[in-house]
Amino acid sequence: MLVDIAGIALFASLAFTIYYLREIIKFLKGGKGWKLITAGYILYVPRVALSLFMDYPQSPIEIARISLSVAIVILIALGMWKLMKDLRSVGISFFSLAYVRYLTAGMFLFLACLSIRTSSFFFLRLNEPLWWTIARIFLVASILMLGFALRKIYVVLGPKTKEIKTLMRAVEMKWMRENLHIIPLYTQLTNEIIAHLIPLEGGMEVAKRVLERCAASHEILRGCEISEEGLNTAVIFRDVENMSEKESYRKMFYAFSCLNSMLIDAYAAITSPERAMEVVKDGEEIIEHMRKVNLPVNNELIYRYRIFFGMPEGIAENGKSKTLLYILFKEALEPLLMKCTKSAIKEISAVARAKGIEIESDGRVNLEAIFRRVHEIIPEESVEYTKSILSAVMTDIYPLIREDIGAEQTKKRFSAVFKELIENHCGAILKYGILENLPEDVEIPRWCSLLRRGQCYLICEEKPIASLKLFNMLAQYGFKGLLISRMHPSHVHAEYKMRADVPLIWLTHIRGENHIAPTNITQLSIAVKDFVERGVEGIIMIEGFEYLIDQNGFDVALRFLESIVDIVTVSKCRLIMPFDKLTVSEREFHRIAREMNVMSRDGVEEITAATEGHALSLI
Question: 426 CB contacts (<8 Å, ≥6 apart)?
Protein backbone atom coordinates (compact mmCIF):
# COMPACT_ATOMS: atom_id res chain seq x y z
CA MET A 1 0.00 0.00 0.00
CA LEU A 2 2.76 2.43 0.96
CA VAL A 3 4.58 1.57 -2.24
CA ASP A 4 1.48 2.41 -4.32
CA ILE A 5 0.95 5.73 -2.50
CA ALA A 6 4.61 6.64 -2.98
CA GLY A 7 4.30 5.82 -6.69
CA ILE A 8 1.24 8.05 -7.11
CA ALA A 9 3.04 10.86 -5.24
CA LEU A 10 5.97 10.46 -7.61
CA PHE A 11 3.71 10.89 -10.65
CA ALA A 12 2.06 13.97 -9.14
CA SER A 13 5.36 15.63 -8.20
CA LEU A 14 6.82 14.82 -11.63
CA ALA A 15 3.84 16.41 -13.38
CA PHE A 16 4.18 19.53 -11.21
CA THR A 17 7.91 19.86 -11.89
CA ILE A 18 7.72 19.08 -15.62
CA TYR A 19 4.94 21.67 -16.05
CA TYR A 20 7.10 24.50 -14.68
CA LEU A 21 10.17 23.31 -16.57
CA ARG A 22 8.19 23.52 -19.82
CA GLU A 23 6.72 26.94 -18.91
CA ILE A 24 10.19 28.34 -18.22
CA ILE A 25 11.38 27.01 -21.61
CA LYS A 26 8.45 28.81 -23.29
CA PHE A 27 9.09 32.02 -21.40
CA LEU A 28 12.81 32.09 -22.09
CA LYS A 29 12.19 31.18 -25.73
CA GLY A 30 14.63 28.30 -25.72
CA GLY A 31 17.38 27.41 -23.30
CA LYS A 32 19.19 24.14 -24.02
CA GLY A 33 20.05 23.57 -20.36
CA TRP A 34 16.39 23.72 -19.30
CA LYS A 35 15.43 21.47 -22.23
CA LEU A 36 17.94 18.78 -21.24
CA ILE A 37 16.75 18.82 -17.61
CA THR A 38 13.12 18.63 -18.79
CA ALA A 39 13.94 15.64 -21.02
CA GLY A 40 15.58 13.91 -18.04
CA TYR A 41 12.51 14.34 -15.82
CA ILE A 42 10.15 13.30 -18.62
CA LEU A 43 12.15 10.06 -19.03
CA TYR A 44 11.62 9.41 -15.32
CA VAL A 45 7.87 9.00 -15.98
CA PRO A 46 8.24 5.67 -17.87
CA ARG A 47 10.81 4.58 -15.29
CA VAL A 48 8.24 5.07 -12.49
CA ALA A 49 5.59 3.33 -14.62
CA LEU A 50 7.86 0.28 -15.01
CA SER A 51 8.30 0.13 -11.22
CA LEU A 52 4.52 -0.02 -10.67
CA PHE A 53 4.21 -3.16 -12.80
CA MET A 54 6.63 -5.29 -10.79
CA ASP A 55 6.93 -6.47 -7.21
CA TYR A 56 10.44 -7.75 -7.62
CA PRO A 57 13.07 -7.04 -10.23
CA GLN A 58 12.67 -9.04 -13.40
CA SER A 59 15.47 -9.12 -15.90
CA PRO A 60 14.02 -7.29 -19.00
CA ILE A 61 12.25 -4.65 -16.90
CA GLU A 62 15.29 -4.25 -14.70
CA ILE A 63 17.54 -3.69 -17.73
CA ALA A 64 15.09 -1.10 -19.14
CA ARG A 65 14.86 0.71 -15.79
CA ILE A 66 18.65 0.79 -15.36
CA SER A 67 19.08 2.08 -18.93
CA LEU A 68 16.54 4.84 -18.29
CA SER A 69 18.29 5.74 -15.02
CA VAL A 70 21.63 6.14 -16.78
CA ALA A 71 20.02 8.31 -19.50
CA ILE A 72 18.25 10.45 -16.88
CA VAL A 73 21.46 11.05 -14.92
CA ILE A 74 23.35 12.01 -18.09
CA LEU A 75 20.62 14.37 -19.37
CA ILE A 76 20.16 16.21 -16.07
CA ALA A 77 23.91 16.47 -15.47
CA LEU A 78 24.42 17.85 -19.00
CA GLY A 79 21.52 20.27 -18.48
CA MET A 80 23.02 21.61 -15.25
CA TRP A 81 26.42 22.01 -16.92
CA LYS A 82 24.84 23.87 -19.87
CA LEU A 83 22.93 26.17 -17.51
CA MET A 84 26.10 27.08 -15.62
CA LYS A 85 27.95 27.69 -18.89
CA ASP A 86 25.19 29.95 -20.27
CA LEU A 87 25.12 31.98 -17.06
CA ARG A 88 28.90 32.33 -17.00
CA SER A 89 28.77 33.79 -20.51
CA VAL A 90 26.83 36.79 -19.11
CA GLY A 91 29.03 37.09 -16.03
CA ILE A 92 26.76 35.37 -13.49
CA SER A 93 27.55 32.57 -11.10
CA PHE A 94 24.91 29.81 -11.12
CA PHE A 95 25.01 29.69 -7.34
CA SER A 96 24.27 33.42 -7.03
CA LEU A 97 20.78 33.05 -8.52
CA ALA A 98 17.75 33.51 -6.30
CA TYR A 99 16.24 30.17 -5.10
CA VAL A 100 19.22 28.30 -6.56
CA ARG A 101 19.92 26.51 -3.26
CA TYR A 102 16.53 24.77 -3.58
CA LEU A 103 17.07 24.16 -7.28
CA THR A 104 20.50 22.56 -6.87
CA ALA A 105 19.57 20.69 -3.68
CA GLY A 106 16.54 19.18 -5.43
CA MET A 107 18.49 18.07 -8.49
CA PHE A 108 21.48 16.71 -6.57
CA LEU A 109 19.22 14.83 -4.12
CA PHE A 110 17.27 13.40 -7.04
CA LEU A 111 20.44 12.28 -8.84
CA ALA A 112 21.86 10.83 -5.61
CA CYS A 113 18.69 8.82 -4.86
CA LEU A 114 18.46 7.60 -8.44
CA SER A 115 22.13 6.57 -8.51
CA ILE A 116 21.92 4.71 -5.19
CA ARG A 117 18.75 2.86 -6.22
CA THR A 118 20.27 1.87 -9.56
CA SER A 119 23.58 0.73 -8.08
CA SER A 120 21.78 -1.25 -5.35
CA PHE A 121 20.58 -3.75 -7.93
CA PHE A 122 24.21 -4.63 -8.68
CA PHE A 123 25.80 -4.40 -5.25
CA LEU A 124 23.40 -4.26 -2.27
CA ARG A 125 20.26 -5.84 -3.74
CA LEU A 126 18.15 -3.66 -1.39
CA ASN A 127 14.88 -4.40 -3.18
CA GLU A 128 12.55 -4.93 -0.23
CA PRO A 129 9.28 -2.92 -0.22
CA LEU A 130 10.50 -0.87 2.78
CA TRP A 131 13.60 0.23 0.84
CA TRP A 132 11.48 1.07 -2.18
CA THR A 133 9.12 3.17 -0.04
CA ILE A 134 11.93 5.09 1.67
CA ALA A 135 13.70 5.70 -1.63
CA ARG A 136 10.49 6.96 -3.25
CA ILE A 137 9.79 9.33 -0.34
CA PHE A 138 13.24 10.86 -0.82
CA LEU A 139 12.65 11.06 -4.56
CA VAL A 140 9.28 12.77 -4.06
CA ALA A 141 10.93 15.25 -1.67
CA SER A 142 13.73 16.02 -4.13
CA ILE A 143 11.36 16.46 -7.08
CA LEU A 144 8.99 18.68 -5.08
CA MET A 145 11.94 20.76 -3.86
CA LEU A 146 12.97 21.33 -7.46
CA GLY A 147 9.38 21.98 -8.54
CA PHE A 148 8.76 24.66 -5.90
CA ALA A 149 12.07 26.35 -6.75
CA LEU A 150 11.08 26.37 -10.43
CA ARG A 151 7.69 27.82 -9.55
CA LYS A 152 9.30 30.66 -7.57
CA ILE A 153 11.61 31.50 -10.47
CA TYR A 154 8.69 31.32 -12.90
CA VAL A 155 6.58 33.66 -10.75
CA VAL A 156 9.48 36.15 -10.64
CA LEU A 157 10.08 35.94 -14.37
CA GLY A 158 6.59 35.47 -15.70
CA PRO A 159 2.85 35.98 -15.34
CA LYS A 160 0.82 34.71 -12.39
CA THR A 161 -2.74 34.58 -13.69
CA LYS A 162 -4.61 32.77 -16.47
CA GLU A 163 -5.50 36.07 -18.11
CA ILE A 164 -1.85 37.12 -18.29
CA LYS A 165 -0.76 33.74 -19.63
CA THR A 166 -3.42 33.96 -22.33
CA LEU A 167 -2.22 37.44 -23.24
CA MET A 168 1.41 36.34 -23.36
CA ARG A 169 0.61 33.49 -25.73
CA ALA A 170 -1.56 35.73 -27.91
CA VAL A 171 0.95 38.56 -28.28
CA GLU A 172 4.19 37.45 -29.90
CA MET A 173 5.79 40.88 -30.38
CA LYS A 174 9.27 41.12 -28.90
CA TRP A 175 8.57 44.35 -27.03
CA MET A 176 5.57 42.77 -25.33
CA ARG A 177 7.63 39.90 -23.95
CA GLU A 178 10.18 42.40 -22.67
CA ASN A 179 7.53 44.51 -20.95
CA LEU A 180 6.38 41.38 -19.12
CA HIS A 181 9.79 41.49 -17.45
CA ILE A 182 9.58 45.19 -16.62
CA ILE A 183 6.37 45.06 -14.58
CA PRO A 184 7.64 42.42 -12.08
CA LEU A 185 10.82 44.46 -11.62
CA TYR A 186 8.77 47.46 -10.54
CA THR A 187 6.08 45.62 -8.56
CA GLN A 188 8.57 43.51 -6.59
CA LEU A 189 9.96 46.68 -5.02
CA THR A 190 6.47 48.17 -4.57
CA ASN A 191 5.32 45.05 -2.73
CA GLU A 192 8.36 45.15 -0.46
CA ILE A 193 7.47 48.70 0.62
CA ILE A 194 3.77 47.78 1.03
CA ALA A 195 4.75 44.77 3.18
CA HIS A 196 6.48 47.16 5.60
CA LEU A 197 3.65 49.71 5.47
CA ILE A 198 0.61 47.45 6.04
CA PRO A 199 1.44 46.24 9.61
CA LEU A 200 1.54 49.86 10.83
CA GLU A 201 -1.60 51.42 12.28
CA GLY A 202 -3.57 52.78 9.33
CA GLY A 203 -0.88 51.53 6.94
CA MET A 204 -3.30 49.80 4.56
CA GLU A 205 -5.45 52.95 4.26
CA VAL A 206 -2.33 55.06 3.63
CA ALA A 207 -1.12 52.67 0.91
CA LYS A 208 -4.54 52.72 -0.78
CA ARG A 209 -4.67 56.54 -0.64
CA VAL A 210 -1.21 56.75 -2.21
CA LEU A 211 -2.30 54.39 -5.01
CA GLU A 212 -5.46 56.44 -5.52
CA ARG A 213 -3.46 59.70 -5.77
CA CYS A 214 -1.01 58.16 -8.23
CA ALA A 215 -3.79 56.60 -10.31
CA ALA A 216 -5.38 60.05 -10.64
CA SER A 217 -2.26 61.23 -12.49
CA HIS A 218 -1.21 57.95 -14.14
CA GLU A 219 -4.03 56.12 -15.90
CA ILE A 220 -2.00 52.92 -16.27
CA LEU A 221 -2.48 52.34 -12.51
CA ARG A 222 -6.26 52.75 -12.65
CA GLY A 223 -7.95 49.50 -11.73
CA CYS A 224 -4.95 48.23 -9.75
CA GLU A 225 -5.66 47.24 -6.15
CA ILE A 226 -3.61 46.91 -2.97
CA SER A 227 -4.32 44.02 -0.62
CA GLU A 228 -2.36 42.22 2.07
CA GLU A 229 -0.64 40.27 -0.73
CA GLY A 230 0.58 43.49 -2.35
CA LEU A 231 -0.20 45.29 -5.60
CA ASN A 232 -2.36 43.48 -8.14
CA THR A 233 -1.06 44.53 -11.57
CA ALA A 234 -3.13 42.21 -13.79
CA VAL A 235 -4.97 45.20 -15.26
CA ILE A 236 -1.66 46.64 -16.55
CA PHE A 237 -0.99 43.50 -18.60
CA ARG A 238 -4.42 43.83 -20.20
CA ASP A 239 -4.02 47.54 -20.97
CA VAL A 240 -0.47 47.37 -22.29
CA GLU A 241 -1.61 45.36 -25.34
CA ASN A 242 -3.23 48.50 -26.78
CA MET A 243 -0.18 50.74 -26.30
CA SER A 244 2.85 51.35 -28.45
CA GLU A 245 6.22 50.22 -27.10
CA LYS A 246 7.43 53.75 -26.33
CA GLU A 247 4.12 54.80 -24.80
CA SER A 248 3.83 51.74 -22.56
CA TYR A 249 7.39 52.04 -21.31
CA ARG A 250 7.04 55.75 -20.53
CA LYS A 251 3.71 55.34 -18.76
CA MET A 252 4.94 52.43 -16.65
CA PHE A 253 8.15 54.23 -15.75
CA TYR A 254 6.51 57.40 -14.50
CA ALA A 255 3.61 55.60 -12.79
CA PHE A 256 5.77 53.22 -10.77
CA SER A 257 8.39 55.87 -10.05
CA CYS A 258 5.65 58.08 -8.57
CA LEU A 259 4.08 55.19 -6.62
CA ASN A 260 7.30 53.83 -5.12
CA SER A 261 8.57 57.27 -4.12
CA MET A 262 5.27 58.23 -2.48
CA LEU A 263 5.06 54.92 -0.60
CA ILE A 264 8.60 55.42 0.73
CA ASP A 265 7.74 58.99 1.78
CA ALA A 266 4.53 57.79 3.49
CA TYR A 267 6.43 55.11 5.40
CA ALA A 268 9.04 57.67 6.48
CA ALA A 269 6.29 60.03 7.68
CA ILE A 270 4.63 57.30 9.80
CA THR A 271 7.86 55.85 11.22
CA SER A 272 11.09 57.75 10.65
CA PRO A 273 13.51 58.52 7.79
CA GLU A 274 15.99 56.05 9.30
CA ARG A 275 13.52 53.16 9.16
CA ALA A 276 12.54 54.17 5.63
CA MET A 277 16.20 53.88 4.59
CA GLU A 278 16.22 50.30 5.91
CA VAL A 279 13.31 49.52 3.58
CA VAL A 280 15.23 51.21 0.78
CA LYS A 281 18.19 48.90 1.38
CA ASP A 282 15.88 45.85 1.33
CA GLY A 283 14.51 47.12 -1.97
CA GLU A 284 17.99 47.40 -3.42
CA GLU A 285 18.64 43.73 -2.60
CA ILE A 286 15.40 42.77 -4.36
CA ILE A 287 16.38 44.69 -7.47
CA GLU A 288 19.79 42.99 -7.46
CA HIS A 289 18.14 39.55 -7.23
CA MET A 290 15.71 40.45 -10.00
CA ARG A 291 18.61 41.62 -12.17
CA LYS A 292 20.39 38.29 -11.74
CA VAL A 293 17.33 36.31 -12.73
CA ASN A 294 16.54 38.47 -15.76
CA LEU A 295 20.04 38.84 -17.17
CA PRO A 296 20.12 35.38 -18.84
CA VAL A 297 17.10 36.49 -20.91
CA ASN A 298 18.59 39.76 -22.11
CA ASN A 299 21.50 41.26 -20.21
CA GLU A 300 20.91 44.71 -21.74
CA LEU A 301 17.18 44.87 -21.01
CA ILE A 302 17.44 46.38 -17.56
CA TYR A 303 19.74 49.19 -18.75
CA ARG A 304 18.02 49.82 -22.07
CA TYR A 305 14.70 50.32 -20.31
CA ARG A 306 16.29 52.54 -17.59
CA ILE A 307 14.76 50.35 -14.86
CA PHE A 308 17.09 51.71 -12.16
CA PHE A 309 16.22 55.33 -13.00
CA GLY A 310 12.69 54.57 -11.79
CA MET A 311 13.85 53.66 -8.29
CA PRO A 312 13.41 56.14 -5.41
CA GLU A 313 16.38 58.20 -4.21
CA GLY A 314 18.93 56.03 -2.40
CA ILE A 315 18.03 52.73 -4.11
CA ALA A 316 20.40 50.92 -6.48
CA GLU A 317 22.76 53.87 -7.03
CA ASN A 318 25.36 51.58 -8.63
CA GLY A 319 22.67 50.36 -11.02
CA LYS A 320 21.89 53.96 -11.98
CA SER A 321 25.58 54.53 -12.72
CA LYS A 322 25.68 51.42 -14.93
CA THR A 323 22.55 52.59 -16.75
CA LEU A 324 24.08 55.97 -17.54
CA LEU A 325 27.31 54.35 -18.75
CA TYR A 326 25.31 51.92 -20.92
CA ILE A 327 23.48 54.85 -22.53
CA LEU A 328 26.73 56.76 -23.05
CA PHE A 329 28.60 53.89 -24.70
CA LYS A 330 25.93 51.71 -26.34
CA GLU A 331 23.47 54.37 -27.49
CA ALA A 332 25.64 57.45 -28.06
CA LEU A 333 29.21 56.31 -28.70
CA GLU A 334 29.07 52.83 -30.27
CA PRO A 335 26.91 53.70 -33.34
CA LEU A 336 29.38 56.47 -34.18
CA LEU A 337 32.48 54.34 -33.59
CA MET A 338 31.16 51.69 -35.98
CA LYS A 339 31.14 54.34 -38.73
CA CYS A 340 34.77 55.35 -38.11
CA THR A 341 37.69 54.15 -40.21
CA LYS A 342 39.86 51.33 -38.86
CA SER A 343 42.80 53.65 -38.35
CA ALA A 344 40.60 56.06 -36.36
CA ILE A 345 39.19 53.24 -34.23
CA LYS A 346 42.74 52.08 -33.48
CA GLU A 347 43.72 55.58 -32.35
CA ILE A 348 40.52 56.04 -30.31
CA SER A 349 40.96 52.59 -28.75
CA ALA A 350 44.46 53.50 -27.53
CA VAL A 351 43.18 56.71 -25.93
CA ALA A 352 40.21 54.90 -24.39
CA ARG A 353 42.36 52.07 -22.98
CA ALA A 354 44.33 54.60 -20.95
CA LYS A 355 41.01 55.56 -19.31
CA GLY A 356 40.01 51.95 -18.62
CA ILE A 357 37.62 51.73 -21.59
CA GLU A 358 37.89 48.73 -23.94
CA ILE A 359 36.94 49.36 -27.59
CA GLU A 360 37.08 46.40 -30.01
CA SER A 361 38.41 46.57 -33.56
CA ASP A 362 34.90 46.83 -35.07
CA GLY A 363 34.01 49.80 -32.85
CA ARG A 364 31.97 47.92 -30.24
CA VAL A 365 32.50 48.90 -26.61
CA ASN A 366 33.17 46.15 -24.05
CA LEU A 367 31.51 47.21 -20.78
CA GLU A 368 32.51 44.20 -18.63
CA ALA A 369 35.48 45.84 -16.90
CA ILE A 370 33.64 49.13 -16.33
CA PHE A 371 30.54 47.39 -14.96
CA ARG A 372 32.68 45.20 -12.69
CA ARG A 373 34.37 48.32 -11.33
CA VAL A 374 31.05 50.07 -10.65
CA HIS A 375 29.66 46.95 -8.97
CA GLU A 376 32.58 46.69 -6.55
CA ILE A 377 32.66 50.28 -5.25
CA ILE A 378 30.31 52.07 -2.86
CA PRO A 379 27.48 54.19 -4.32
CA GLU A 380 29.17 57.54 -3.57
CA GLU A 381 32.31 56.42 -5.40
CA SER A 382 30.27 55.06 -8.33
CA VAL A 383 28.89 58.56 -8.98
CA GLU A 384 32.38 60.09 -9.04
CA TYR A 385 33.73 57.22 -11.18
CA THR A 386 30.88 57.70 -13.68
CA LYS A 387 31.60 61.43 -13.81
CA SER A 388 35.26 60.73 -14.57
CA ILE A 389 34.37 58.30 -17.39
CA LEU A 390 31.87 60.79 -18.80
CA SER A 391 34.45 63.58 -18.69
CA ALA A 392 37.06 61.39 -20.41
CA VAL A 393 34.66 60.51 -23.24
CA MET A 394 33.64 64.12 -23.85
CA THR A 395 37.17 65.53 -23.58
CA ASP A 396 39.31 62.88 -25.28
CA ILE A 397 37.12 60.56 -27.40
CA TYR A 398 34.34 62.82 -28.74
CA PRO A 399 36.76 65.16 -30.62
CA LEU A 400 38.49 62.21 -32.32
CA ILE A 401 35.18 60.79 -33.57
CA ARG A 402 34.06 64.22 -34.75
CA GLU A 403 37.32 64.65 -36.65
CA ASP A 404 36.94 61.27 -38.40
CA ILE A 405 33.24 61.14 -39.41
CA GLY A 406 32.37 64.83 -39.32
CA ALA A 407 30.91 67.31 -36.83
CA GLU A 408 27.32 67.05 -38.11
CA GLN A 409 26.87 63.27 -37.60
CA THR A 410 28.56 63.35 -34.21
CA LYS A 411 26.56 66.32 -32.96
CA LYS A 412 23.28 64.88 -34.25
CA ARG A 413 23.76 61.54 -32.47
CA PHE A 414 24.87 62.97 -29.13
CA SER A 415 22.18 65.67 -29.22
CA ALA A 416 19.41 63.10 -29.81
CA VAL A 417 20.60 60.74 -27.04
CA PHE A 418 21.17 63.39 -24.38
CA LYS A 419 18.08 65.41 -25.24
CA GLU A 420 15.95 62.27 -24.71
CA LEU A 421 17.86 61.49 -21.52
CA ILE A 422 17.38 64.98 -20.08
CA GLU A 423 13.72 65.14 -21.06
CA ASN A 424 12.78 61.74 -19.60
CA HIS A 425 15.22 61.24 -16.73
CA CYS A 426 16.53 64.66 -15.84
CA GLY A 427 16.04 64.30 -12.09
CA ALA A 428 17.89 60.97 -12.06
CA ILE A 429 20.99 62.03 -14.01
CA LEU A 430 21.65 65.66 -12.98
CA LYS A 431 23.85 64.39 -10.15
CA TYR A 432 26.37 63.09 -12.72
CA GLY A 433 27.16 66.58 -14.03
CA ILE A 434 26.22 65.75 -17.61
CA LEU A 435 25.34 69.35 -18.45
CA GLU A 436 28.77 70.56 -17.32
CA ASN A 437 30.59 67.94 -19.44
CA LEU A 438 28.66 68.06 -22.72
CA PRO A 439 30.58 69.60 -25.64
CA GLU A 440 29.36 73.04 -26.68
CA ASP A 441 28.00 71.89 -30.05
CA VAL A 442 25.65 69.30 -28.50
CA GLU A 443 22.12 70.69 -28.51
CA ILE A 444 20.08 70.40 -25.28
CA PRO A 445 16.81 71.99 -24.06
CA ARG A 446 17.25 75.75 -23.52
CA TRP A 447 16.14 75.70 -19.88
CA CYS A 448 19.09 73.45 -18.98
CA SER A 449 21.53 76.33 -19.52
CA LEU A 450 19.29 78.96 -17.92
CA LEU A 451 18.19 77.28 -14.68
CA ARG A 452 21.46 76.57 -12.88
CA ARG A 453 21.95 74.64 -9.64
CA GLY A 454 22.00 76.79 -6.49
CA GLN A 455 20.44 79.80 -8.26
CA CYS A 456 17.30 81.80 -7.35
CA TYR A 457 15.03 83.29 -10.01
CA LEU A 458 12.52 86.11 -9.66
CA ILE A 459 9.77 85.97 -12.30
CA CYS A 460 7.88 89.20 -12.78
CA GLU A 461 4.19 88.56 -13.44
CA GLU A 462 0.84 89.60 -11.95
CA LYS A 463 -0.49 86.04 -11.68
CA PRO A 464 1.81 83.01 -11.33
CA ILE A 465 0.68 81.34 -14.57
CA ALA A 466 4.08 81.13 -16.33
CA SER A 467 5.87 80.30 -13.06
CA LEU A 468 3.57 77.38 -12.26
CA LYS A 469 3.90 76.06 -15.82
CA LEU A 470 7.69 76.16 -15.45
CA PHE A 471 7.57 74.49 -12.02
CA ASN A 472 5.22 71.78 -13.29
CA MET A 473 7.41 71.20 -16.36
CA LEU A 474 10.48 70.65 -14.18
CA ALA A 475 8.49 68.30 -11.91
CA GLN A 476 7.48 66.33 -15.01
CA TYR A 477 11.15 66.08 -16.00
CA GLY A 478 11.91 64.39 -12.68
CA PHE A 479 12.97 67.18 -10.33
CA LYS A 480 11.81 66.77 -6.75
CA GLY A 481 9.56 69.75 -6.08
CA LEU A 482 8.35 71.77 -3.10
CA LEU A 483 5.57 74.30 -3.68
CA ILE A 484 4.75 76.94 -1.06
CA SER A 485 1.60 78.75 -2.20
CA ARG A 486 -1.17 81.05 -1.13
CA MET A 487 -3.54 79.13 -3.43
CA HIS A 488 -5.54 76.18 -2.08
CA PRO A 489 -3.95 72.80 -3.04
CA SER A 490 -7.13 71.55 -4.77
CA HIS A 491 -7.12 74.67 -6.98
CA VAL A 492 -3.45 74.18 -7.89
CA HIS A 493 -3.97 70.51 -8.83
CA ALA A 494 -7.18 71.16 -10.78
CA GLU A 495 -6.10 74.35 -12.56
CA TYR A 496 -2.46 73.56 -13.30
CA LYS A 497 -2.50 69.71 -13.40
CA MET A 498 0.25 69.51 -10.80
CA ARG A 499 1.83 66.10 -10.23
CA ALA A 500 0.23 64.23 -7.33
CA ASP A 501 3.56 63.47 -5.63
CA VAL A 502 4.66 67.14 -5.38
CA PRO A 503 4.37 68.31 -1.72
CA LEU A 504 2.39 71.53 -1.38
CA ILE A 505 2.40 73.85 1.64
CA TRP A 506 -0.61 76.16 1.90
CA LEU A 507 -0.02 79.59 3.42
CA THR A 508 -3.08 80.02 5.64
CA HIS A 509 -4.12 80.70 9.21
CA ILE A 510 -6.42 77.65 9.05
CA ARG A 511 -4.86 74.71 10.89
CA GLY A 512 -4.36 71.46 9.02
CA GLU A 513 -1.91 69.02 7.44
CA ASN A 514 0.71 70.85 5.33
CA HIS A 515 -0.76 74.21 6.40
CA ILE A 516 1.64 76.89 7.70
CA ALA A 517 0.59 80.29 8.94
CA PRO A 518 2.16 83.14 6.89
CA THR A 519 3.37 84.73 10.12
CA ASN A 520 5.24 81.57 11.15
CA ILE A 521 8.43 82.46 9.28
CA THR A 522 10.50 80.01 11.34
CA GLN A 523 8.38 76.99 10.32
CA LEU A 524 8.53 78.05 6.67
CA SER A 525 12.33 78.24 6.84
CA ILE A 526 12.50 74.80 8.47
CA ALA A 527 10.28 73.32 5.70
CA VAL A 528 12.62 74.67 3.01
CA LYS A 529 15.74 73.59 4.90
CA ASP A 530 14.39 70.05 5.41
CA PHE A 531 13.67 69.75 1.68
CA VAL A 532 17.12 71.05 0.69
CA GLU A 533 18.94 68.75 3.14
CA ARG A 534 17.62 65.65 1.33
CA GLY A 535 20.47 66.26 -1.12
CA VAL A 536 18.36 65.78 -4.26
CA GLU A 537 18.18 67.92 -7.38
CA GLY A 538 15.10 69.92 -6.48
CA ILE A 539 13.02 72.90 -7.49
CA ILE A 540 11.40 75.14 -4.84
CA MET A 541 8.68 77.62 -5.67
CA ILE A 542 7.41 80.32 -3.30
CA GLU A 543 4.13 81.74 -4.60
CA GLY A 544 2.51 84.49 -2.53
CA PHE A 545 5.51 86.49 -1.33
CA GLU A 546 3.28 89.56 -1.57
CA TYR A 547 1.05 87.92 1.07
CA LEU A 548 4.06 87.33 3.34
CA ILE A 549 4.97 91.01 3.04
CA ASP A 550 1.40 91.99 3.91
CA GLN A 551 1.32 89.68 6.96
CA ASN A 552 4.81 90.34 8.36
CA GLY A 553 5.96 93.68 6.97
CA PHE A 554 8.53 94.20 4.22
CA ASP A 555 11.69 93.99 6.35
CA VAL A 556 10.72 90.70 8.03
CA ALA A 557 9.68 89.15 4.70
CA LEU A 558 12.93 90.30 3.04
CA ARG A 559 15.03 88.79 5.83
CA PHE A 560 13.13 85.51 5.31
CA LEU A 561 13.86 85.65 1.56
CA GLU A 562 17.55 86.36 2.20
CA SER A 563 17.80 83.32 4.48
CA ILE A 564 16.10 81.12 1.85
CA VAL A 565 18.47 82.41 -0.86
CA ASP A 566 21.45 81.50 1.36
CA ILE A 567 20.07 77.99 1.94
CA VAL A 568 19.43 77.38 -1.77
CA THR A 569 22.79 78.82 -2.90
CA VAL A 570 24.79 76.11 -1.10
CA SER A 571 22.44 73.30 -2.21
CA LYS A 572 21.64 71.34 -5.37
CA CYS A 573 18.27 73.05 -5.63
CA ARG A 574 16.85 75.97 -7.59
CA LEU A 575 14.34 78.56 -6.35
CA ILE A 576 11.74 80.29 -8.51
CA MET A 577 9.48 83.02 -7.12
CA PRO A 578 6.75 84.79 -9.08
CA PHE A 579 6.18 88.37 -7.95
CA ASP A 580 3.99 91.31 -8.90
CA LYS A 581 6.34 94.30 -8.67
CA LEU A 582 3.40 96.74 -8.63
CA THR A 583 2.59 95.63 -5.06
CA VAL A 584 5.71 97.32 -3.63
CA SER A 585 7.61 100.54 -4.19
CA GLU A 586 10.37 100.75 -6.76
CA ARG A 587 13.00 100.90 -4.01
CA GLU A 588 11.59 97.80 -2.28
CA PHE A 589 11.45 95.90 -5.57
CA HIS A 590 15.13 96.69 -6.24
CA ARG A 591 16.02 95.29 -2.79
CA ILE A 592 14.21 92.04 -3.66
CA ALA A 593 15.64 91.85 -7.18
CA ARG A 594 19.20 92.34 -5.87
CA GLU A 595 18.96 88.93 -4.14
CA MET A 596 17.85 86.99 -7.24
CA ASN A 597 18.16 86.53 -11.01
CA VAL A 598 15.32 88.45 -12.62
CA MET A 599 13.42 86.77 -15.47
CA SER A 600 10.58 88.23 -17.51
CA ARG A 601 7.32 86.39 -18.00
CA ASP A 602 7.94 86.34 -21.78
CA GLY A 603 11.30 84.60 -21.21
CA VAL A 604 9.70 81.94 -19.02
CA GLU A 605 6.88 81.32 -21.49
CA GLU A 606 9.42 80.91 -24.28
CA ILE A 607 11.16 78.17 -22.29
CA THR A 608 7.96 76.30 -21.42
CA ALA A 609 6.51 76.63 -24.93
CA ALA A 610 9.47 74.76 -26.41
CA THR A 611 8.81 71.76 -24.18
CA GLU A 612 5.09 72.04 -23.45
CA GLY A 613 4.05 69.17 -25.72
CA HIS A 614 6.48 66.77 -24.08
CA ALA A 615 5.65 67.88 -20.54
CA LEU A 616 1.91 67.52 -21.07
CA SER A 617 2.33 64.03 -22.49
CA LEU A 618 3.71 62.89 -19.15
CA ILE A 619 0.83 64.17 -16.98
Answer: 474, 477, 478, 479, 537
